[in-house]
Amino acid sequence: MDKRVTFRGWILPLLLIAPQVLISAVFFFYPATQAIWQSLFIPDPFGLSAQFVGFGNFEFLLGDKFYRASFLTTAVFSILVTLCSMVPALFLAVLADRLIKGSGVYRTLLIWPYAVAPAVAGVLWLFMFNTRVGVVSWYLGQLGYDWNHVLNGGEAMGLVVVASAWGRISYNFLFFFAALQSVPRSVIEAAAIDGARFWRRFFTIVLPLLSPTTFFLLVVNIVYAFFETFGVIHTITAGGPQQTTTILVYKVFSDGFVGQDLGSSSAQSVILLIVVGLLTVVQFKYIEKRVHY
Amino acid sequence: MAHEVHGMVEKRGAGLWLTHVFMIFGVLVIFFPIWLAFVASTVSQPEIVSPPMPIWPGDRFWENYKAALFSGVNVPVATMLLNSLVMAVGIAVGKIIISLLSAFAIVYFRFPGRITFFWLIFLTLMLPVEVRIVPTFEVVAGFGMLNSYYGLIFPLIASATATFLFRQFFLTIPDELAEAARVDGASPMRFFIDIVVPMSRTNIAALFVILFIFGWNQYLWPLLITTDPEMNTIVMGIKQMFPSGDDVAEWPVIMATSILAMIPPVIVVVSMQRLFVRGLVDSEK
Question: pTM of the prediction?
Answer without folding.
Answer: 0.88
